[in-house]
């Protein structure tokens, strides 16, 4: 992620640009162990020279599984014509994950593996925005889903949230949130300072004249910690309400009950018992008809699992980005920084592969799940089959002798 550019030049002063550029170039050349190196070509980080095939493989696997799975989510939503706002927002989540796999993951991997910057000035400013943009979209979508669920369960009389307008608002807000990142990035064209041999080569660094630590902390609090706290609060309230409404009297029914009693039905309740009053019983049944506690509890379980795993996947990289502002990279720990960043980035992108499996389990019927479990237990059933046949034969023989 963009923390890669942050940590590369985080402790370098820009007071003497010529010495800074020369020292960076010498560092690139010395780290390559190649006398005929071309600075206009990609230079692999020496700390990753033995493990980079493994990272290319696991990143490619995440890209393939995440893209295929999220495309299938969109296909399922469109094929079944699921118009419920929750499903439409999950479709928006799938679009965000496809963006991560197709656009963000390959560029981020190249940036983490290659030491020199050869992508030009535009990508220097655009890459951090591209990296964080779909992550913000995912978090804002989870927050919108939690709000929509809260309104649906605790305030069923209110209309559902307009999913289309919410999705447009999420993407516009995410764009606005990442635009300030360009202020904290600085691109230096080495060809301008060092001659034509360095045309196309540049340095993409954090502008040390700006205090990026404050912006990073603000983004962590506003787009990670606070949304997760709000989501947790809303889901706790929703889960509690679902548990209450599983009883004989729902929350809406209790409101109707109180209204009926206040209008004079209490006198009939005193004479014949409140449970025997036909008007009250009709109110209870009509309010409970549209509420399926099993379905709502199942939906709640999958949504909580999705947001929990998403937060767990992106937590290591978020924490590491904050830590890099206090622990600077040196020659002694550069290798650890490289491996840690590329590993934590992979864990973050791993979240794109989780939702397709959870969504498939959510949509799958009980019969299909039992059939699938049977496939995995096939070998166990084959071992137990001879024993069961022996038991049946023994019982038949015993019955014949008797």
UniProtKB/TrEMBL annotation:
Residue segments, region Disordered: 263-293
Pfam families: 7tm_1 (PF00001)
Residue stretches spanning the membrane: 50-75, 87-111, 117-143, 163-184, 215-236, 302-328, 340-363
Main location: membrane
Biased amino acid composition, Basic and acidic residues: 263-274
Chain ranges of the G-protein coupled receptors family 1 profile domain: 69-359
Gene3D superfamilies: Rhodopsin 7-helix transmembrane proteins
InterPro entries xref list: GPCR_Rhodpsn, GPCR_Rhodpsn_7TM
Record key words, sorted: G-protein coupled receptor, Membrane, Receptor, Transducer, Transmembrane, Transmembrane helix
Topology of the protein relative to the lipid bilayer: Multi-pass membrane protein
UniProt-annotated location(s): Membrane
Protein name: Prolactin-releasing peptide receptor-like
Name of the gene: LOC106807379
């Amino acid at each position: 992620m963009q923390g890669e550019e942050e940590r590369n030049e985080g402790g370098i002063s820009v007071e003497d640009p010529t010495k800074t550029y020369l020292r960076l170039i010498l560092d690139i050349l010395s780290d390559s162990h190649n006398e005929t190196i071309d600075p206009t070509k990609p230079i692999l980080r020496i700390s990753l020279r033995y493990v980079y095939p493994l990272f290319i493989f696991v990143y490619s696997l995440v890209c393939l599984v995440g893209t295929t799975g999220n495309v299938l989510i969109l296909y399922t939503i469109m094929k079944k014509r699921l118009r419920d706002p929750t499903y439409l927002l999950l479709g928006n989540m799938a679009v965000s994950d496809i963006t991560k796999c197709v656009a963000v993951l390959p560029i981020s991997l190249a940036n983490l593996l290659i030491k020199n910057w050869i992508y030009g000035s535009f990508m220097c400013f655009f890459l951090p925005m591209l990296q964080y943009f779909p992550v913000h979209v995912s978090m804002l979508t989870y927050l919108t889903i939690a709000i929509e669920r809260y309104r649906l369960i605790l305030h069923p009389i209110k209309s559902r949230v307009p999913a289309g307008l919410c999705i447009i608002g999420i993407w516009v807000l995410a764009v606005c949130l990442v635009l300030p990142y360009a202020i904290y990035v600085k691109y230096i064209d080495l060809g301008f300072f060092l001659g034509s041999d360095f045309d196309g080569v540049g340095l993409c660094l954090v502008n040390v004249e700006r205090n990026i630590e404050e912006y990073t902390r603000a983004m962590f609090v506003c787009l990670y910690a606070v949304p997760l706290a709000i989501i947790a609060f809303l889901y706790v309230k929703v889960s509690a309400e679902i548990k209450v409404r599983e009883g004989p009297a729902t929350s809406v029914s209790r409101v109707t009950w109180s209204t009926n009693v206040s209008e004079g039905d209490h006198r009939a309740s005193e004479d014949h018992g409140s449970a025997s009053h036909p008007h009250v019983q009709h109110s209870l049944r009509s309010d409970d008809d549209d509420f399926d506690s099993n379905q709502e509890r199942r939906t709640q379980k999958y949504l909580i699992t999705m947001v929990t795993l998403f937060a767990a996947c992106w937590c290591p990289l978020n924490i590491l980005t904050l830590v890099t502002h206090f622990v600077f990279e040196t020659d002694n720990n550069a290798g650890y920084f490289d491996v840690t960043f590329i590993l934590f980035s992979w864990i973050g992108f791993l979240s794109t592969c989780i939702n397709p499996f959870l969504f498939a389990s959510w949509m799958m019927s009980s019969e299909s799940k039992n059939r699938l479990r049977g496939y995995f237990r096939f070998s166990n059933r084959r071992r137990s089959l001879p024993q069961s046949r022996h038991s049946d034969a023994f019982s038949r023989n015993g019955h014949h002798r008797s």
